[in-house]
């Protein structure tokens, strides 16, 4: 039997990057998947079609992470379609592109905080409401190495990722008593559209190339860890924040 046979997964940010790679990897191991998107409908539908071609069920559903109503509706639509939620992967997020204290605007702060913290929280809340009823479920959230160091982003992004790690630990301590397992992964630089400006920076890339791994991470690198944490192989891992950064932090950070 496949690792996730009979499991239903929601993957936020599933239209590209880490989310897309994770949605495909979960389906490859047997899961049926809800591919969440906000602005990438065509990409999300393409990922859903690729999953369907594997013989799995998949639908693409839209929700703005800054809208509690839309998040709630996506969860309700998932239940209506599949009847349960076994796995939630919070991959969607916003980056502040190192906007500093002098140049950050209220709009940038609100967008990052409301997406990365508030949106993630309400996906966890509404999905865990159903997980608690069945006394089982797994939540894996994509944070960042910026959640364990001080200079992995600007103030908005860094704050959001430290908060996200704390949120998953709190989720472990409370709903976790009802059979829910929650963990966080903390990537370094990953080759996704969200950080294309950094990938084009010779100065930034020289720091990444000087890490022990000597390369940028890929969405597939992240998906492998996420799938492990979502599986029964990781059943004794609760409330952890796992670095997957090619040795960036161990090497002294940025």
UniProtKB/TrEMBL annotation:
Belongs to the short-chain dehydrogenases/reductases (SDR) family. It comes from the Bacteria. Pfam families: adh_short_C2 (PF13561). GO terms for molecular function: oxidoreductase activity. One of its GO terms (biological process) is bile acid metabolic process. The keyword Endoplasmic reticulum does not apply. Keywords: Lipid metabolism, Oxidoreductase, Steroid metabolism. This is SDR family oxidoreductase.
